[in-house]
Amino acid sequence: MNSHTGQKYSLGDLVTRFGGELLGDASIQIRQVASLERAGLEHICFFSDVRYRSQLQNTSAGAIILGRKERNETALPRIICDNPYAYFAKVSSLLNPEPATMPGIHPLAVVDDSATIDSSASIGAFVVVGKNVKVGVGTVIGPGCHIGDNVSIGDDARLYASIVVYHDCLIGDRVILHSGVVIGADGFGFANDEGRWVKIPQIGRVLIGNDVEIGANTTIDRGALEDTVIEDGVKLDNLIMVAHNVRIGAHSAMAGCVGIAGSAKIGNRCTVGGAGMILGHLEIVDGVNVSAGTLITKSITKPGTYTSAMPFSKHQDWLKNAAHLRHMDKIVEKIRALEQKINELERKKS
Amino acid sequence: MNSHTGQKYSLGDLVTRFGGELLGDASIQIRQVASLERAGLEHICFFSDVRYRSQLQNTSAGAIILGRKERNETALPRIICDNPYAYFAKVSSLLNPEPATMPGIHPLAVVDDSATIDSSASIGAFVVVGKNVKVGVGTVIGPGCHIGDNVSIGDDARLYASIVVYHDCLIGDRVILHSGVVIGADGFGFANDEGRWVKIPQIGRVLIGNDVEIGANTTIDRGALEDTVIEDGVKLDNLIMVAHNVRIGAHSAMAGCVGIAGSAKIGNRCTVGGAGMILGHLEIVDGVNVSAGTLITKSITKPGTYTSAMPFSKHQDWLKNAAHLRHMDKIVEKIRALEQKINELERKKS
Amino acid sequence: MNSHTGQKYSLGDLVTRFGGELLGDASIQIRQVASLERAGLEHICFFSDVRYRSQLQNTSAGAIILGRKERNETALPRIICDNPYAYFAKVSSLLNPEPATMPGIHPLAVVDDSATIDSSASIGAFVVVGKNVKVGVGTVIGPGCHIGDNVSIGDDARLYASIVVYHDCLIGDRVILHSGVVIGADGFGFANDEGRWVKIPQIGRVLIGNDVEIGANTTIDRGALEDTVIEDGVKLDNLIMVAHNVRIGAHSAMAGCVGIAGSAKIGNRCTVGGAGMILGHLEIVDGVNVSAGTLITKSITKPGTYTSAMPFSKHQDWLKNAAHLRHMDKIVEKIRALEQKINELERKKS
Questions:
Q1: Would you tell me which residues 189-248 of chain B have a C-beta closer than 8 angstroms to some C-beta of chain C?
Q2: Is residue C137 part of a domain?
Q3: Domain count, chain C
Q4: Per-residue model confidence as pLDDT tens digits over B166-183
Q5: pLDDT-based confidence at A18, cuts 50/70/90?
Q6: What is the distance between the alpha carbons of residues A290 and A287, in angstroms, rounded to a whole number?
Q7: Å from B32 to nearest chain A CA?
Q8: What is the pTM of this model?
Q9: Which of B46, C81, C188, C225 stands the most exposed, by the fewest C-beta atoms within 10 Å?
Q10: Residue in B193, B291, B297 closest to C315 by CB
């Protein structure tokens, strides 16, 4: 585990900052967060799932964050609150601040004279910044990033190394982009002209709201005619493909390897599990959860969880089974034939 | 929407360049393409699907491109042609030319003395160009690209920022590579030697034909012994994996997140929908369409559309359903037993 | 095909180095490996699959590597050994050595003064090396790589161009990372706080053992609290997503487009086929093979091969078939009803 900071906080400090009810010695010093299994006296942990009760009983942690119902699950010094995991997140952010970055433009960056870079921003080595780019207060652009003409990046954003943002895209405040992210490459638009593909220029942009985080090597294509839009608070994991003209509603979250095809509109507070795929030109309402490995082929008009995953088997069993999966229509026909015959037998009987 | 150009063209100009029949005032000036919904007087739109008839009726566009059958669907100034979408593509390319790039080699690029860079080509900042590399007329290599030894890139190609081309690969004319593309990394070849993997050196190349476009973060591996080949006019979307020794036939197109395993041979004018997967050592004839989310496990010898996607359900319904999917063989057995019993009952009857 | 070397070896040299039984003229000179179909007199091939017998009979190769049982399948000069493919791998590595790289730090690299770079290591142009980084003997870091603070890279490792390694990660000896790889980006960890996502700082590292190879644009996230671990000898193909806290056991191998969700523990000597997906918090024992396109949703406690792929059909057949796949529970119910009716008919009969 790394430790960006040696700074400690007392339990009293923590409840002053983040609220909650403190049971135990307010002067106990906390240096870092940890798992129940690995924690020592200077660590704080969270507990929110009774399946881990034995880990809680055996932990050597200095303090625990836990929910109101679980207040008596341990006798250790503890903070009682409504949402232990969110509380833990805030404590961990306090204990693990982003390392300070020197403001200023690295001498080996190439920044166009027309760009407006806030004096508190940091531009790393081998960065290229195009014409009319704006970079806001406290924003950090890591080494090797390429920021196209007319791009605007808000305040306190963090672009890690080797990110590309194509021309004209807008990126909000407190956005985090991880390495290898590509924002604003051309959407996949071609007209077929007698067997050959003619490119449709992609003249839309990508608009990314505030508080968005995007994982490593994820790509978000620019719109064909209008814009691709990622709303506030969206969290995207690694290696996700967001196609042109997609809109992802506020506070939606998607796990790794997800694909969203062109012009799909995803609602607010949706989730998509790993490798979920959403076809193009669909609309998905707010509050939909798509399970991992699930292919969504039609619009979804009601909140809830949707799944299409095929269950796995031992390969030998699958071999016996799989061929039948292609002949469901015949199986259903056979059942109908049986039903008719039985009805006939019963009729004759009576 | 961006606008790389302020240049306008009259409807008369357009039919002079691209053909078609003009109905209406030839002097009407067009500045940009747009969707029917967002268009204004200086915009031209296309119409090819009667499902959007109400949008056509309500549009404020200055002119419409539409097919011969639809010639009377609007009274607006219009261009009648055989393929409205391809016509629209050409008009849009005219109105949205690539921004001009300054020819020459950026002073912060590292270009080997043995490389042959055409004087009209543009090599961006922080580019590395290896030994004996050739770069053709009008080709643009964006910032941060790395071009390995002996690579040849044709004329009028466009490599966006942060692309890697490994040694010995060949790239044709008018090829477009988007950011994060990796061409020619080692294929995945290992021999198992008593539980350990021994690397098979990958000594083939990647050969990319003319007019190919490859989306962001797509990877195309070099061949093991022979070459991986992407033929003319192929269009690949983002985050696609093309393994070693694959051949993709001319004018085939593949959507995002597709995977093509080693030594698969894909015919001409094929399409693969998003997240389609094609296993290794297969052959797929010309004119095959693989649906989104479909896994191709055997060679395909006839053109047509092929699908394996599992339909999605509400999760509660899926839970009731999914377990049975693993026991198709038992279901089929039960049906056979029923058929036998009924045959017996009927025989006794008669 | 490239040829990094003009050096030839006699068959006698090869058996001296790698063992095996030589049948034929020991003085025959071999310049390169090749496929049976393309080989000429200076090429050596391997033969291990009797399906390619006709290729063996027609080859123009100078020599063949083959197994003990197949010793008489050809009369050509040949090397007989236990594992022809592994033998071929070793011969190919001898004939195709990595091109020599000049040791030293490129004048356009930015290396922190506190970094320890072995004098035999090579640091390419536009590389950024952070504080306290260690780079071992003979290691090559290609152009445009970004190595975060406190990273340690072992001996004889090879990082191709444009790789990012975040702070604090450890990389072993003889590791090969291909372009676009991102090691140590933040894992996908968020607590939901009244509809908004609060980031969980990811304070673990990535630990990569010896002899690991990782394909282009693959991403391996750092651990949330503890570390993500890739053990010795693991081979990962392109565009793979390894989430936080995953452990991949020694000598496991995974094909392109695989996803491993958070905290999954994969055993030793496992394989995962292309686009296989393994859900989070699972444990998979040693020696498990997951088929291509298979979603693993539960822990696997026994070695063997596991599959969930849905077989593909012509789209017209699939359309007739697919709707039924969502109604397996109803089909099973109907069968039960039929069974009851038949039992009744039989009872009445008797």
A1: 190-193, 195-201, 203-205, 217, 219, 221, 225-227, 239, 241, 243
A2: no
A3: 3
A4: 999 999 999 999 999 999
A5: very high
A6: 10
A7: 10
A8: 0.96
A9: C81
A10: B291
